[in-house]
Design goal:
Blueprint: H1 19-46, E1 52-58, E2 62-66, E3 69-73, E4 76-80
Antiparallel strand pairs: 1-4, 2-3
Length: 83
């Protein structure tokens, strides 16, 4: 029986984004987030026969991550057009 000589190597890499990278990421995704929020609001209020009027409030946008995925979140409050 021959002797076995095996070797292995392992490593870990982590990357933390800078504040400027976070700000750039938010700038890049914010227009799309607002468009999606408006479409969802139109769908929701359309179900009750109303129309969205204007944006009243924007929450502070945030980014979060899970593994290799990054999630952007913003809350939007809209008024309804008068009947």
């Amino acid at each position: 029986m021959a002797a076995s000589n095996s070797q292995a190597i392992g490593w870990t890499v982590s990357y933390s984004v800078s504040d400027s990278e976070l700000a750039g990421g938010l700038e890049a995704v914010l227009p799309g987030l607002l468009e999606r929020a408006r479409k969802q609001a139109d769908t929701l209020v359309g179900a009750i026969g109303r129309l969205v009027d204007q944006v009243l409030n924007l929450g502070v946008p945030s980014l979060s991550s899970s593994g290799l995925q990054v999630f952007a979140t913003v809350s939007v409050t809209c008024s309804l057009k008068p009947l």
